[in-house]
């Protein structure tokens, strides 16, 4: 073979090897992320309904965490078994069918987070593989549930790249003020743990013991001493970063022996959000409204009223000062020289 052709062949083979190595590296990176997602999120992110686990976490908060109740597990298992036994079986419209769709949405959420982490394209064909072709007819509903959860919990919006392109991007939403004034604590990924934590504290009487907080985080698939694929080292995040940023207060329970610790809302959390907003977050996660939880709703209303009263005197003082200055200026302007 002529030397020139050998050189071209060698270059081509080298190019192919480099591409294969690059693809192998990317596949390994994706596989590692998927493994982290699977290990960090052994339970679904959320399901409709209240779980009946023995963990002493308020039912509302457990629904946000996403642990399926035993009854739902039985229904889902029965439904899957029926699907296996009959080729004509399809997701029903009853509660067990909705449970299955919600579980599929949870699986899709984990896949989307994985792809977002490694900056991998999101395609409809890949999402259909996640939910299984049997659920193709229900894919719009599953995608809607997954999108709502990504938006609510993580502040991520799923957007189609172009109309009918079947290719999507996850985009971080702007903060509520629209001027970028809120800190990164309210954006992905930290928002995904901060709002639920504030909810846990609120539902435990505005202070939650360290044991109660970790019980809740365990339900989310977040464990003390185990690195999480989104939040990193969780203890460092909640007892150092969020405390330093003044979103949480972490203190020893007075007179506790041996020492025990508890979490409270920090001053920035109190300034930048409200009990009503947190209750609205919990309510949306339960597909209901704040008034469905009367005692917490009443407390949130009282908090709103107290905030309004605290603001009113300040506004009145400002208005009074402005009026006085205006009158003084008017008198000066009308004073004869």
Largest sheet: 3 strands, antiparallel
Backbone shape: globular
Distance from N terminus to C terminus (CA atoms, Å) equals 108 Å
Number of helical elements: 12
Oligomerization state = single chain
Strand content: 5-15%
**Strands in their spatial order, largest beta sheet:** 1-3-2
- CA radius of gyration: 26 Å
Number of strands: 6
Report on this structure:
It is a single chain. This protein has helices spanning 3-40, 59-65, 70-85, 95-117, 124-131, 139-154, 191-203, 210-219, 234-244, 267-272, 275-285, 294-334, and strands at 122-123, 156-160, 167-172, 208-209, 248-252, 261-265. With 337 residues, the chain is mainly α. The strands form 2 sheets. The chain has a 3-stranded antiparallel sheet. A 3-stranded antiparallel sheet has the order 4-6-5. Helix 3 crosses helix 4 (95-117) and helix 7 (191-203) packs across helix 11. It is globular, with a radius of gyration of 26 Å. The chain starts with a helix and ends with a helix. Residues 28-95, 175-179 and 328-337 have low confidence and may be disordered.
Key terms:
single chain; 337 residues; mainly alpha; 3-stranded antiparallel beta sheet; 12 helices; 59% helix; globular; disordered C terminus
Brief overview, please?
The protein has helices at 3-40, 59-65, 70-85, 95-117, 124-131, 139-154, 191-203, 210-219, 234-244, 267-272, 275-285, 294-334, and strands at residues 122-123, 156-160, 167-172, 208-209, 248-252, 261-265. It is mostly helical and 337 residues long. It is globular, with a radius of gyration of 26 Å.
